[in-house]
## 1
Amino acid sequence: MRTYDFTPLWRSTVGFDRLFDMLDETQRAVEDNYPPCNIERIGDDRYQISLALAGFAPDELAITAEHNVLTVEGRKADKEAREYLYQGISSRPFKRQFNLADYVQVTKASFDNGLLRIELVREIPEAMKPRRIAIGTAPLEQIATQKAA
């Protein structure tokens, strides 16, 4: 795996601390790919995360969205001890985290047929959206008055 030195970018950028921290973290982290997941774009500002959680029940899962980080945790309830001859379906505890961009909000979550689906939407505030600025013209008399003064 390659590592990158972001020092030159630190010298010429302001306000990108969170982005560089995420890049540094991904270089250092050993990625655990359990449980498997899909991340889909389902519209211009709509996304869906699907996690394959065979053997888990909805009450054994916790979803938390806090400070632009979505966390999904699962822990099997110890209902009864079983003796497995072969256990191919993993039921180990897990914690998956997803970094969310600014203004991305979790709208709903559903659990069906072993798939946990989390829907997200990006809602940019009106004040942050681009707006068209009207170009006005000043009367010639007003321009002449300003030059004379």
## 2
Amino acid sequence: MKSLHLIAALAAAAFSVLALGSLPAKADAARIKDIASLQAGRDNQLIGYGLVVGLQGTGDSLRSSPFTDQSMRAMLQNLGISTQGGQSNAKNLAAVMVTANLPPFASPGSRIDVTVSSLGDATSLRGGTLVMTSLTGADGQIYAVAQGAVIVSGFSAQGDAATLNEGVTTAGRVPNGAIIERELPSHFKDAVNLVLQLRNPDFSTAVRMADAVNAFAGRRYGGPIAEARDSQEVVILKPKVTDLTRLMAEVENLIVETDTPAKVVINERTGTIVIGADVRVSRVAVSYGTLTVQVTETPQVVQPEPFSRGVTAVEPQTDIMAMKEGGPVAILEGPNLRTLVAGLNNIGVKPDGIIAILQGIKSAGALQAELVLQ
């Protein structure tokens, strides 16, 4: 009897292991604030034109950049300084474009970062200071004013026979360099609903988000308030007993199981390969071989005989060697990401070879994912 009970227990354990192994992998969980953004809370782009001064001879040449000279004269005239006379040859200022993103619900007096980019033939903005620059929006209104020291991450060193460049020296940032002067018109408090936009549109994630909000609303307000409009937008109606600010604070911390389509992203320039967790490969046979041709030039110098009238000549000599490497045919199958990566590594090819293999598998119809080439 004891042996029968032991056999039954082992069979039940084996059945549970098989059942667990057949279950699908659990989706990744994330907060709503991490996977969606508020439609009414979008950023707005600002742009302006200004001057960077205080450069150590790395600014615009005023003859090649006449707009820099005009801007300098206009600035000095606004400061009450006469600019009549000959053309200046100063190289310590540069004309720049100033850009920034105005965050949603930004109030006057708060600060934002700005990006400064050279317009003329300046070689570096390092050590410069951005002079007061107005930043306007798409409607032509001034929303911020920028000024401050420009921070440049790149550097450049030049000698008589060599030049060393690291990064970009003609663009930089001014941290907290712009002060907001005008508030964007906002009707957030007067709206009757919240519209959440998924950063990665997906129907499954949108439906799960709506279900999570409705489950919370059923306990909190006594009924559903959310609806998935499409793969990107989820609309949440405002209950009468609360306001939108409190409703958004309650909703954005809800946990949702996200889902994304299977993708393989390939960047052929850098050799980068990103494989999603849901990528599957049907059973396929793969063989990868390369042909390498090596050409070696070893010219020979031929000298004439002594006291002869011959001339020294160079006799070319070329050696060509071809090497063909081919691996065995391998069976590749990827029921999960770990198995797929292990199978690709076992073939023993470099990233460029893996890119070619993945493209071939996609053409054969065995790659169950979207192949994105960058």
